[in-house]
Structure formats: C-alpha cells, structure tokens
C-alpha cells in the first residue's frame, strides 16, 4: 500500500492507497476501533483488478488529525472530511464503502453529497432511521448498545480502554470475531494505532458527539449494497432489512457465518461482492 496526506476541512487526513489512479475510484471508511489500514485485504484485491482504492484514517484515528473538542466529531463534520477527500482525489464520483462507524459516515455523505457517490456499500451499519426504530422497539438491541452510553462519559472510558495495554479493546475484538481471525501481529497493530497521541480521546469523541446531531428521516436513491454478517454481537438482524427499506435501489446480502467483522473473516467474498457491484452498476 502507498500513502497520501491531504489538508481537508481544517485538518490533515492521512490515507492508504492502492492501484492505478486512473482506475475506478473506491473509498473505504473504517469504523471503531480500526484505522484505514484495516481494509488492506480489500485494497489489494480491488487494486489488482483495476480499481484505485483509498482508505483514510478518519479524524481522531491513526495518523490523521485529532482535534480536542467533542463538536469536532459530529457526523456532518466527519462527512465533510470525506467529501473533501473525494474532491482532492480528482476522480469524480466514487464507490463509497463504509463499515461500522464508517458506514454511518457513508450514509451521511450519501444524504448530503450524493453527487460525489456513484455507488454505496455498507457493511454492518444500520441506516440512521433504522437503528432509531430498532432501539425503540427491540429490547435486545438496547441491551447490546449499552456501551454507547458508557463511551459518552468523560475520562472514564479512556482510562478503562487504555488500561493493561488496551486489554478491554483487545478482548472486545477477540470475543466478537470468529476465532483465529486476528493474529497477535494484527492485535499489536491495533494497539499501535490506539496508542497514537490523542487517538483514544478522538475515537471516543465520535460517540460523545452523537448528542449534537440527529438527522431528519431520509431515503437513499443511490445504488446501494448492504453486506451483513448475521452473527453480529452489537447489532440485531432487524437493522439490515429496515436499512434496505430506506434505499430505493438497494440490495441486501447476508453472510450467515460472519460477525460484525465480516471484511476480516470473509475478505475475499466481501471483496468479490464489492467488485461485482462496481461492475454491474
């Protein structure tokens, strides 16, 4: 993978890149608690098949800027970062791929700047309208979402997450993924990303900033592919179908044996699905 740095929206955004800049542009958005390099399998696969792939460390993560203020991490601000990055690429509209929180940003970019997105691919992240409905109606989802309130507390989440060599974050990954998916080397790379100065605070500010943004209901008119691991420890299956209902050109594909981390557990199948979607649209 190569790397690039862009000055965007008042911050520095660091990205991993792969492939010919003249190829079909694909932008990958990671979630919590990952970083741009977590998409390495998809970048290599798609770049080898003619795509130009870009995976930023989103603000607060990795080698990108980490502003101190909570309001610097509202979803519209995060979406403006990605809109600015797409503009810097100079490729025209892109295929935008997002997982977890990266999917939340991708939904927002699709809402605010559909002119910048040719196709939308979402991995295990509900449409905002869908998750609000599921939280209202589904007690199991409310129980699974307990950590969101915890992460919004001041200082304590940073202390708990960083204690004993980031043991809480390591164990959360290990216990919510298929056995053997993450090697010790992989987990050490995660630890290095979390240990970047200001990173843990910035990562948690994404959750704290939720109080400052509540989007109005919206429908996505772009071609949209939802890829969903059925064994997600954090999200109830109802989120998938309800998200599909908010897309006028949507397709939903389940991965029956995958968890929340399907792009790591099924890297080739996920990459093939993204490439097939790019070629058919």
TrEMBL record:
InterPro entries: AB_hydrolase_1, AB_hydrolase_fold, Epox_hydrolase-like. Coiled coil: none annotated. It comes from the Bacteria. Gene3D superfamilies: alpha/beta hydrolase. Residues 25-267 form the AB hydrolase-1 domain. The keyword Hydrolase applies. Keywords: Hydrolase. GO terms for molecular function: hydrolase activity. This is Epoxide hydrolase EphM.
């Amino acid at each position: 993978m190569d790397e690039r740095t862009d000055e965007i929206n008042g911050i520095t955004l660091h990205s991993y890149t792969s492939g010919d800049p003249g190829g079909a542009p694909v932008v990958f958005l990671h979630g919590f608690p990952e970083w741009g390099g977590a998409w390495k399998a998809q970048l290599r696969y798609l770049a080898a098949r003619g795509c130009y792939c870009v995976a930023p460390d989103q603000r607060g993560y990795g080698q990108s800027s980490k502003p101190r203020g909570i309001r610097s991490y509202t979803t519209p601000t995060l979406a403006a970062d990605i809109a600015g990055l797409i503009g810097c690429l100079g490729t025209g509209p892109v295929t935008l791929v997002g997982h977890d929180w990266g999917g939340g940003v991708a939904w927002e970019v699709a809402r605010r700047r559909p002119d910048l997105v040719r196709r939308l691919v979402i991995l295990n992240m509900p449409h905002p309208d869908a998750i609000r409905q599921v939280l209202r109606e589904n007690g199991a989802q409310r129980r699974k979402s307990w950590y969101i309130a915890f992460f919004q507390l001041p200082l304590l989440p940073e202390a708990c997450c960083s204690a004993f060599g980031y043991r809480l974050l390591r164990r959360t990954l290990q216990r919510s993924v298929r056995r053997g998916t993450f090697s010790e080397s992989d987990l050490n790379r995660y630890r290095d990303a979390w240990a970047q100065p200001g990173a843990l605070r910035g990562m948690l500010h994404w959750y704290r900033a939720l109080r400052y943004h509540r989007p109005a209901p919206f429908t996505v008119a772009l071609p949209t592919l939802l890829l969903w691991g059925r064994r997600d420890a954090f999200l109830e299956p109802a989120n998938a179908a309800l998200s599909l209902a908010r897309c006028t050109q949507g397709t939903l594909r389940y991965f029956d044996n995958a968890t929340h981390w399907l792009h790591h557990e099924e890297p080739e199948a996920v990459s093939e699905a993204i490439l097939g979607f790019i070629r058919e649209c």
